[in-house]
Amino acid sequence: MSSAKKKSGFFTRAAIAVGVAVQFALAPLSPAIAQQQRVPIVRDAEIEALVSDYARPILRAAGLGKSGIDIVLVNDRSFNAFVAGRRIFINTGALLTAETPNEIIGVFAHEAGHLAGGHQERLRAQLERAQTIAIVATLLGIGAAVGGALSDNSALARSGGGIAMGGAEVARRGLLGYQRAEESSADRSALTYLERTGQSARGMLKTFERFASALALTGSRVDPYQLSHPMPRERIAHLQTLASQSAHFNKTDSAALQVRHDLMRAKIAAYTEGPAATSRLFRNNPRSLPALYADAINTHLRGRPRDAIAKIDRLIATQPNYAYFHELRGDMLVRANQPGEAIKAYARAQKLDGSKSPIIQISYGKALLSAGDQKATREAVRQISNALSRDRENPDGYMLLAQAYGRLGSIGEAELASAEMHYYSGSFQEARIFATRAQQKLKRGSPDWVRAQDIINARPNRKK
Hints:
By secondary structure, the protein is mainly alpha-helical. Helices cover 67% and strands 5% of the residues. The protein has two domains: 1-253, no CATH class; 255-457, Serine Threonine Protein Phosphatase 5, Tetratricopeptide repeat. It has 20 helices and five strands. The protein has a five-stranded mixed β-sheet. A hairpin with a 2-residue loop joins strand 4 (81-84) and strand 5 (87-91). One of its GO terms (molecular function) is metalloendopeptidase activity.
């Protein structure tokens, strides 16, 4: 993973006045706001390409194929996914825990059900309704309490407090009941999307089984009416019969897709938990391709570049057309202070990468920048600018672009790139300062000057 693997991200759990946590953010948040919410976002070309391949047919089946849905990876160990705006967020913990692609595909099918069903928009209306109920109940309670106090009627005063608390509880339970209904609706939609794409619902049921087992292990007695989701066993009971009737129920993932899934799990385990975790993960097959991939990453992270390069070279010999082995080799060569060889590795990765990831292209530009000469620096500007045209919200890319422009003496462009970097990092005041400085060096009315003005004028929505 790149240095961006622990960026702050953009999701906050909204709550109404009565204190009910909700599943969806109330509004789509820009990454600039996201940076302030301290949710760690993972950027990785290999993982992003794989989860996009998982989600793409599901989104088409849900009628969302042309809706511009983005998938955002969250660096969190818990098994969770959620939607906000036009984005599906999925935790690395879910990707690491899921043993098969089908389990994650089931997760995407469920989240697509929320998006296709317009649940976020309706949830906003339910929140407003719940807030109204809570506010009215509070006002009535205050009125009763004041009336009781003025009339020296202690019973009436006490009842005023009861009205306020009771109204809030009605609002809370009503909202929770609504959320449970929407979760059940998303589950049913997920079955439809899986059927349309010729995929099994077994993975989705396995996820619910996992939740049920985890709940049982806690030994806690749970009131189902206090939850925003149906109980796992209840969800399984509702879905089992329909899922098992599908002609695709016993269909399994292809061997090639399973290998990609295991390579992803190897990478996440190595970067987030280290050698002990990868050893546990592949203890039954320590010489498998994913296990060796994890070993190469662990060696790289332990600061042994020569050994790491030797290990990734052996993997490349077995899979010469796998783009992400070449990408990792480039990372290793950068760390070994061999920019010339790193440039070649990233160029090869970029050529082989079917997803045309801007992340690899930015890494390529970084290696070019490390070469130090003017020709390589100009090429770095070209590569990074091209990547940012497809990944406009990448602060690291703008930071590198600012460095490249600075080396070329293009100070106005460097100041503007710095403004973009601060803007997409959530540092709005700094962004305006750099944008103002950029305007002093750019031609008035030019596209770059206008963009600087946009940053100066921007007043991002800070609603939480």
